[in-house]
Amino acid sequence: MSEKVQVQICVGTACHIMGAADLVVIEDLLDRSLRDRVEIAGVACMGLCKDEASGKPPFVVIDGQTLSEATLDKVLGQIEQRARRLIDGDTGDVGA
Amino acid sequence: MELFLDISELSLKKHGESVCGDQIRTARTPDKTIVVLSDGLGSGIKASILATLTTEIIIRMLKADVGLADVVETVIGTLPVCRVRKIAYSTFAVMEILHADYSYKIVNFDSPEAMLFRGRRLMRPERHTMRIHDRDILVSQGRLEQGDFICLTSDGVLHAGLGVKMNFGWGWDNVAEHVERRLEASPQCAWEVTRNVLAQTYSLYGGKPGDDASVVGILVRRRNRVVVLTGPPLDRATESAIVERFLASKARKIVCGGTTGNIVARHVGREVKVDMKTVTPEVPPIGELPGVDLLTEGIITMSKMLELLEECQFNPAMLPSRRDGAVLLAREMLNADVIHFIVGQSINEFYQNPDVSKHISIRKNLIREIVFALNQHGKEVTVEYC
What we know:
The structure holds two protein chains of two kinds.
Chain A: E1 5-10, H1 13-17, H2 26-29, E2 38-43, E3 60-62, E4 65-67, H3 72-95
Parallel strand pairs in A: 1-2
Antiparallel strand pairs in A: 1-3, 3-4
Chain B: E1 3-12, E2 22-28, E3 32-40, H1 44-63, H2 68-78, E4 90-98, E5 103-109, E6 115-118, E7 121-123, E8 126-132, E9 135-143, E10 149-153, H3 155-158, H4 172-184, H5 190-204, E11 213-222, E12 225-230, H6 239-248, E13 252-256, H7 258-268, E14 273-275, E15 286-288, E16 294-296, H8 299-311, H9 325-335, E17 338-343, H10 363-376, E18 380-385
Parallel strand pairs in B: 12-13, 12-17, 13-16, 17-18
Antiparallel strand pairs in B: 1-11, 2-3, 3-4, 4-5, 5-9, 6-7, 6-10, 8-9, 10-11, 14-15
C-alpha cells in the first residue's frame, strides 16, 4: 500500500464552533487524482485549544503538523502540496 | 423497584365540544402507582367537572392510603345519580399497583372492564363483583409480570364507529384484538399502543367522535437506566476512580464530551474512533469506544438535544430520523426511566474566549436545565458533580 497524507480534523467543541464543521467537505473538494493518497479522519478534542501557543481553533493536523485557524483553502493547499510530493516520489521510484 | 410501569394516557373529545368529559389522573408514591380514569355523564364542561371531581377525590384518598374499597364506597356514596336515567353522573376505573410485589387491583364502576394482556395475549384475571351502595362493582386482581400490558378505556372507545362504520360500534372484543395485534410488534413504550388505539377510534368515528374517548395503557417493562459522564473532573487524581465506576455501571453508558471521551479511552487503552458520517453543520460527529454505548461531543450536542426534546414534546416518535449526536442522545434520554449524570466541573479555558458564544461556557447551567426538563417529564434524574 502506498503512503498517504494523514489528515486529522479536530471535532471538539471549540473547533466545531470555530469552523471545523465546514472542513468536513474537504474530501469532496480534493482533486480526484489525489483522493486515494489522502486519509481524512475526525478526532475527538485534541486539547490544542487549551494551549495558547498552539494558536486558535479550528485545528487540523496534517502528517503530524498542527495547522491552527484552519480554513478550507489552507487545509486543501497543504494536503495537495503533500500529496503531490508523494505522487512525485512514487513516479521517481518507478523511473529509477 | 426493578420493573417499570410505563403509563401513557390519551383522550379525544367529542366532536364539537371544547373540553373532554373524560379525566385521567395518575399518581406515584414510593409504595404504589395509582391510575384513575373517569367518564362524566354526557359531554362538555359539565361532564368534565364531574369526572374531574371523581378522579381528584379518588387520587387524594388513595394517596392518603385509604383502602380502595373505602374510597370506592365514599365516591359512589357521594356521586349524584341522574334522576331520569338512574345512572351515576360519573363512571370510573381505578387501578392500584403496589411496588413491593406488583400486585394490582382494578375496580370498574360502570366503566368498560380493564383489559390485561400477558405474553401479548388477552387474559382473564381473577375477578369478582362487589356490591357497594346497591351498585355492582367489578374488582379484578392479580400480580403483574414483566411484559404485561393493561388497557383501560372509556366507553367512547368501545362505541367508536357506532352508526358510522359499524352497527354496534368497535366493541370490547375487537378493541382487545386490536391491542393484541399492536403488542405483537413489541412496542417499546405504552404510548405506541395507546396512540394507535386512539387513532383507530378517531378513524372509526369518521374524524368526528360521537363521544369523549380515552385510553390508558400501562406497559410493565424493565427499568431502563442510563448513566451520563460529561466533563473532566476538577481533580485529575479522581479521574480513574470515576471512569472505573462509570464503566462498571450496569446502565447504558453515555459519554458527552471530547475530552471526557479521551479520558475514558485512555483508561481502557483504546482510541476514540470518530464517525464522520454523523457530522452536521450544527452538531459535531459522534465517536465509538468499546464499552460505551454512545459517545458524543459535549456542550453543543447537549444543548441541541434539549432543543430537540422540547421540539418533539418528549415524544420519541416525533424525533427527526437523522443520525447525529443530538438526535441519538435525545433518543437515549427518552428511552430511559432513570438517568444519572456524573458532571465534571473542570473548565476548558478556551470556552471563556470572547470569540466563543456565551452559551457553551457553562456546563453546569446546561445540565441544570436538562435535569429540570427531564424531571418534568417523569424521568428519575440524579446528578453528582466531581
